[in-house]
Amino acid sequence: MTQAAAVPEAHVSAQLIRQLSSAVANDQHFDDHFEAEVWMTDMNRRLAIYLSDPHQRLELLKSIQREALRASLDLQLVLSVIDVESRFTSRARSSAGAQGLMQVMPFWKKEIGRDSDNLFDPDTNLRYGCTILAWYLKVEKGDITRALARYNGSLGKTRYPEQVMTSWDARWWVDS
Q1: HEC readout, the chain
Q2: pLDDT given at position 175
Q3: Which residues are CB-contacts of 17 (< 8 A; sequence separation ≥ 6)?
Q4: Which pLDDT score, from 0 to 100, does residue 7 have?
Q5: In sequence order, what are the beta bridge partners of 104?
Q6: Would you call 140 a catalytic residue per the annotation?
Q7: In the predicted model, is pLDDT for residue 21 greater than 60?
Q8: Could you tell me which of 57, 72, 83 has the C-alpha nearest to residue 137?
Q9: For 24-53, how does the pLDDT look when each residue is reduced to its tens digit (9 = 90+)?
Q10: Which position among 31, 51, 92, 173 has the lowest Cβ density within 10 Å, counted as fewest Cβ atoms?
Q11: What's the maximum distance between 2 C-alpha atoms anywhere in the chain?
Q12: What pTM, to 2 d.p., does this model score?
């Protein structure tokens, strides 16, 4: 696991706080059955090395698909971030205190006034993580390397983005 993901910056954007608050409050679902089934079948096979329970894999993949698409993120990018951050362990905790699949820092809950949210819950964690990552991609004008470094709290360094991109290329890449 990485040192800390989605760490606070010197000043957390009020717009990001509003977007995260809105995302956590709204539950939208993606509903393209054919594409979902093709993707699910492929990713289910790949995810089996991390999660042996087929029901658990399916539920996690549905959540990843829903949250990544809601945030307009590439599904494989989200899988790669989770791979590097937690190796798909929903109860993961970093030495810096980041929690869950996408290693979200608990300060985000306080920032949006939802102290009771459980970042170890995969759906909640994915909602937060995808929203934060999408925001950083917007801030960085689509520059994935800078957005990933910002997500990890290592802006200006490339180690973490390189780890995510290596995971994406080696395990999660899908030809369009």
Answers
A1: CCCCCCCCCCCCCHHHHHHHHHHHHCCCCCCCHHHHHHHHHHHHHHHCCCCCCHHHHHHHHHHHHHHHHHCCCCHHHHHHHHHHHHCCCCCCECCCCCECCCCECCHHHHHCCCCCCCCCCHHHHHHHHHHHHHHHHHHCCCCHHHHHHHHHCCCCCCHHHHHHHHHHHHHHCCCC
A2: 80
A3: 111, 112
A4: 47
A5: 99
A6: no
A7: no
A8: 72
A9: 454 444 455 677 677 888 999 999 999 999
A10: 31
A11: 44
A12: 0.83
In Å, how far are 79, 125, 141, 153 from 64, measured between CA atoms?
Answer: 8, 10, 23, 22
Angstrom distance (rounded) from CA 106 to CA 59: 24
Amino acid identity, position 102 = M
Report d(CA 48, CA 62) in Å as an integer: 15
Phi then psi for 143, rounded to 5 degrees? -75, 100
Identify which of 116, 107, 21, 26 has the alpha carbon closest to the alpha carbon of residue 70: 26
